[in-house]
Amino acid sequence: MNGNNIITVNDVTEEDCMERCRSEKTFHCKSIDYNRPGRFCYLAIVDRDTVALNVWKDYNYYELSCERKLGLLPLSDEY
User: Fold this and answer.
1) Cβ atoms within 10 A of the Cβ of 3, count?
2) Checking phi first, is residue 75 left (phi over 0); if not, alpha (psi -120 to 50) or beta?
3) DSSP letter string over 18-71?
């Protein structure tokens, strides 16, 4: 979600990144982009309903559901 990331967290696991979004208090975190090789976590204020998704190599995209749970949305076969 390029241009809509509010917080970047370095050197975290995917699970830690998801938990950071779920527990964020300063804004309504709707999704994350996770860079696997760099272990970068990007918390965003938008989701696929408000911004078109792009497929980026080495990134996984997750978004918060109505139940405030993060779930995987596979966007490509390049994993």
Assistant:
1) 7
2) alpha
3) HHHHHH--SS---EEEEETTTTEEEEES--TTTS-----TTEEEEEE-TTS-EE
- List the helix and strand counts (H, then E) for the chain: 1, 5
- Reading the chain (79 residues) residue by residue, the pLDDT tens digits are 567 788 999 999 999 999 999 999 999 999 999 999 999 999 999 888 787 667 778 999 898 876 555 555 545 444 4
CA 36/CA 13 separation, integer angstroms:
8
CA atoms within 13 A on the CB side of 1: 25
| pTM of the predicted model as reported, rounded to 2 decimal places | 0.76
Joined tokens for residue 22 = 């779920």
Decide: 62 and 20 in contact? Cβ < 8 Å.
no
